[in-house]
């Protein structure tokens, strides 16, 4: 039995104590709120009404897992909110990094950081990890940016393994260009280009690169 969450390291974008608190709050909501109960802890104390947790719930949630799935795309920039705000943090862009066609920053080391945090935070309770989603949106059949992205993130996984994190697999999102939620067919994550009018499928440069990497790793 396994379960997956979309994780994102929270990077404070400011030097004030309020910025640090905002980042810690986002981290609790986005990462710890999902993972703490899985490994025998209560939910983080960030405003959850205790009445929604019934007797025995946490024991069921903390049933043993065979694996933890980690979806990773990028860290999140966080700072203290300006004035009255609906949330106790503001999300801000992380500048100075290459961007995908989605506008997401390309930061492979964030994956290494995330995997290291999971091991440090949950220790022996943590089951083997599989990176169940990692990928980027770029146009074109010749997609060297995707090759660079995948190379960096696979190297980040290798670095985490060398640091002692038990990572068993890395899965690219996605094999085929597909329907991307609210973005529809406008963002292409696939290793294989799909002509959505004709359904013709063309392997991209990244497909051949990834295939050769897998063959060389056997």
TrEMBL record:
Gene3D superfamilies found in the cross-reference section: Glycosidases (3.20.20.80)
Pfam families registered for this protein in UniProt: Glyco_hydro_1 (PF00232)
A GO BP entry: carbohydrate catabolic process
Keywords: Glycosidase, Hydrolase
InterPro entries named among the record's database cross-references: GH, Glyco_hydro_1
GO molecular function, one term: beta-glucosidase activity
GO cellular component, one term: cytosol
Family of this protein: Belongs to the glycosyl hydrolase 1 family.
Name of the protein in its database record: Beta-glucosidase
Lineage: Bacteria, Bacillati, Actinomycetota, Actinomycetes, Micromonosporales
């Amino acid at each position: 039995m396994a379960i997956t969450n979309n994780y994102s390291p929270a990077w404070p974008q400011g030097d004030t104590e309020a910025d640090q608190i905002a980042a810690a709050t986002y981290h609790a909501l986005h990462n710890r709120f999902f993972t703490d109960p899985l490994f025998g802890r209560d939910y983080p104390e960030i405003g959850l009404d205790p009445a929604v947790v019934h007797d025995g719930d946490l024991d069921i949630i903390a049933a043993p897992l065979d694996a933890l799935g980690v979806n990773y795309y990028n860290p999140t920039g966080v700072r203290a909110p300006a004035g009255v705000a609906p949330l106790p943090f503001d999300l801000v862009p992380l500048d100075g990094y290459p961007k995908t066609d989605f506008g997401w920053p390309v930061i492979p080391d964030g994956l290494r950081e995330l995997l290291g945090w999971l091991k440090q935070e949950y220790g022996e309770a943590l089951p083997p990890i599989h990176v169940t989603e990692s990928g980027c949106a770029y146009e074109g059949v010749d997609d060297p940016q995707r090759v660079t992205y995948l190379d960096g993130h696979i190297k980040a996984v290798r670095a985490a393994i060398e640091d002692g994190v038990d990572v068993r697999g890395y899965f690219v999102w996605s094999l085929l260009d597909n329907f991307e939620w609210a973005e529809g067919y406008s963002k292409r994550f696939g290793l294989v280009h799909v002509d959505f009018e004709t359904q013709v499928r063309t392997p991209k440069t990244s497909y051949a690169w990834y295939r050769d990497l897998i063959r060389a790793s056997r």
